[in-house]
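Why do we care about 3D structure at all? Because function follows from shape, and shape follows, mostly, from sequence. That is the central idea of this module. The next example makes it concrete: a single protein chain, its amino acid sequence, and then its structure expressed as tokens.
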Amino acid sequence: MNSQRFMIIPFISFLAACTSTTVVLLPDSDGNVGQVEMITDSGTTVLNKAYESSEAEKQKLSSTPNVLLSKEIVRDKYGDILAKEPLIPEHFKFYFKTGKADLQAEAQEMLLKSKARIEERKSCDLSVIGHTDRVENDDLNYLLSMVRAANVAKALVDLGIPLNCMDIRYYGESYPVIPTLDDVAEPLNRRVEIEIR
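And the structure:
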């Protein structure tokens, strides 16, 4: 899923008795930049570079030419707004053997990392989501994904993460990372994902 971060800053000028909206396109945490279109009666302005900005005055219904701002200028000018931005969700994945729901040996290190991030973020908003590949039938896979999710949730509880902070879901083979035909074993689809918000 492509997403983009941008902030819209409404300005009100009491002296000029007009309002305007400024849009600044921000890169994702991994540096990727999406695209934003500002549409007014005068046309469309496209922002597609990191820290690119444009302003539209509502009375005139037109936008100013795009301006490329530096990261430092954005931080200095809009730091208070950026400080209030919610943290981007983090994901941790646990993989399973075909038809199995027990955590593998390498899962302990990932559990400790996820626990550390939950505590650092002071989060009580996480999802634990179970999945399977397409080996076996739909009903068995649904149950298997439920047990996998429950096992990861229990491991987190054993590490001190409150159960009431978790939304536990399971989808069987419904949302594969790699789509396959029936009865095809795909290790990347046999997973539980933790999303920390």
